[in-house]
Write a structure and sequence with these properties.
The chain has about 400 residues and is an alpha/beta fold. It has 12 helices and 18 strands. Strands 1, 11, 12, 13, 14, 15, 16, 17 and 18 form a 9-stranded mixed beta sheet that branches. This is Diaminopimelate decarboxylase.
């Protein structure tokens, strides 16, 4: 999006505000499906956790996407967006049997990642086909918080426990219709994906009623200037060849599924904030914005780097700034960043604000969560109102003291 469009949106809707460019979401979706165009049955299940606004889910549904969900609430959001239950996969971790039963009754594809629930669910519902999430024991991902397929991770059923899975399946007479893995996020090296895929193929050979193989996600997108990204096109060519060969060996045209979050929405998002104060100290110049890690936690949580641009002064002289928020503890978005000269009231845009930004926002410091705007067909549409004082207190119960 152009700087002047972002500036207009901040002027029209106020700040802080999240903006999503539908064109970028569409082009990323098309890029991924194009990379796998030689797979007969391809399914993209957008990972709702990345950005769960219903209008975004509707946009993706319109493109032909299904959904990957991790909570019963995400399942319900998907259904509210009009996505058919059979196009929703539910991949929870460590939830109760009751929650999984509720999801099964709504008709979504269940994906189970532990032996205890597999046995209980299979015993009660032998006629509901289930997908199994394996733990391939592969260390991959941009940082430890988002590396989830290694031996010490809580996710998935170990590939060393396949005999136990098979025993449960035999005893309960349940049907396993899919095998799934997700090894982490921000994975650059396609050889890591291909290596883990071999483990998925090896696992799949043990199950005779499969309909799909789900390779999860974790594609890396560029965050910083000059950053490299997962080469989706090359990965598409290599995995397609291997997948089609596996289907021949297996004797059935299976569906190849992915569940990308970041790849589809990260670069489509911008977070617009206003500079309240420019503060010179003995060591730096702080630009203090009208937001904080309550609205965008990734820099403080993961050390994530979001590019920041000054959309009010895009041609100004570049200077060095530490961009910080208003939360009453260390609240740093960026240190020593080269940004076009900043004045108070300027609007700063944080890039890559589509994935894991609004969806991780909170009310910490009793601040309102921001508004969300969709930039679609050259028009800015409000898709979530900024919260108000009523939202902060609506569930509080005042007692007589
Ligand atoms: C099970 C599962 N699938 C898909 C995703 C999406 O990953 P990404 O945003 O890296 O594409 C995640 C992210 O945490 C996940 O846990």
């Amino acid at each position: 999006m152009l700087e002047k469009q972002l500036l207009h949106i901040a002027q029209e809707f106020g700040s802080p505000v999240y903006v999503y460019d539908s064109e970028k979401i569409i082009s990323q979706y098309n890029r991924l499906t194009q990379a796998f165009s030689k797979v007969k049955n391809l399914r993209i299940n957008y990972a709702v956790k990345a950005l769960s606004n219903i209008s975004i889910l509707k946009l993706l549904k319109g493109l032909g996407s299904g959904l990957d969900t991790v909570s019963i609430q995400e399942v319900k959001l998907g259904l509210m967006a009009g996505v058919a239950p059979e196009n929703i996969i539910y991949t929870p971790n460590g939830v109760s049997l009751e929650e999984i039963e509720t999801a099964a009754k709504l008709g979504v594809q269940i994906n189970i990642d532990n032996l205890s629930i597999l046995e209980q669910f299979g015993t009660k519902y032998p006629n509901v086909p289930v997908c199994i999430r394996i733990n391939p024991h592969v260390m991959a991902g941009g940082n430890t918080n988002i590396s989830v397929g290694h031996i010490d991770s809580k996710f998935g059923i170990s590939i060393h426990q396949i005999p136990h899975i098979l025993r449960i399946v035999e005893n309960t007479e349940m049907t396993i219709n899919g095998i799934h893995m997700h090894t982490g996020s921000d994975i650059l090296d396609i050889d890591v994906f291909l290596y883990a895929s071999e483990i998925l193929f090896d696992t799949a050979k043990h199950f005779s009623n499969l309909e799909f193989l789900d390779f999860g996600s974790g594609f890396k997108v560029p965050y910083k200037e000059g950053d490299i990204e997962t080469n989706i096109e090359e990965f598409g060519k290599k995995l397609t060849k291997r997948f089609n060969q596996f289907c021949k060996e297996y004797g059935k045209e299976l569906t190849l599924a992915f569940e990308p979050g970041k790849f589809l929405v990260s670069e489509a998002g911008y977070f617009l904030t206003k500079v309240n104060v420019v503060k010179q100290t003995t060591s730096t110049v702080f630009a203090q914005v009208d937001s904080g890690f309550n609205h965008l936690i990734r820099p403080m949580l993961y050390g994530a780097q979001h590019n920041i641009i000054n959309v009010s002064n895009p041609k100004g002289r570049e200077r060095f700034y530490s961009v910080v928020g208003y939360i009453c503890e260390t609240d740093t978005f960026a240190n020593n960043r080269r940004i076009n000269e900043i004045s108070e009231d300027d609007i700063l845009a944080f890039k890559n604000a589509g994935a894991y930004c609004y969806s991780m926002a909170s009310n910490y410091n009793s601040r309102y969560r921001p508004a969300e705007v969709l930039w679609h067909n050259s028009e800015a549409k409000l898709i979530r109102k900024r919260e108000t004082m009523d939202d902060l207190v609506k569930n509080q119960v005042a007692v007589e003291l």
